[in-house]
């Protein structure tokens, strides 16, 4: 009996949006595909101009394994060291749930849309309250 070779549905590409870099991922992110994701995140970090982000768009991801979560965490640490924000786009439960369970959502808050991830973020101004002089 002849068997067909295993076809792993996965695709990753990179796009530049102004000074930001978007890494679009589709298919299954697991131990077999994480190497390509690592490579594209590293290129994105090299191309990005702070304070513009590197955005990893997981909108078309069907499955996110622990290897993918680990790679996103590693990318987040590398981005922080480079002074570049790393943002993630995710809105499907099968991607958001592993973020929540692993605790990664506390470090990288997933954005619902690419537009949200690309939007400039400003720091919240500190409110200063003056006490009345008595």
TrEMBL record:
Residue ranges occupied by any STAS domain in the UniProt entry: 21-121
Domain of life: Bacteria
GO molecular function annotation: anti-sigma factor antagonist activity
InterPro entries in the cross-refs: Anti-sigma_ant (IPR003658), MlaB-like_STAS (IPR058548), STAS_dom (IPR002645), STAS_dom_sf (IPR036513)
SUPFAM superfamilies: SpoIIaa-like (SSF52091)
Family according to the record: Belongs to the anti-sigma-factor antagonist family.
Entry protein name: Anti-sigma factor antagonist
Native organism: Saccharothrix saharensis
Taxonomy of the source species: Bacteria, Bacillati, Actinomycetota, Actinomycetes, Pseudonocardiales
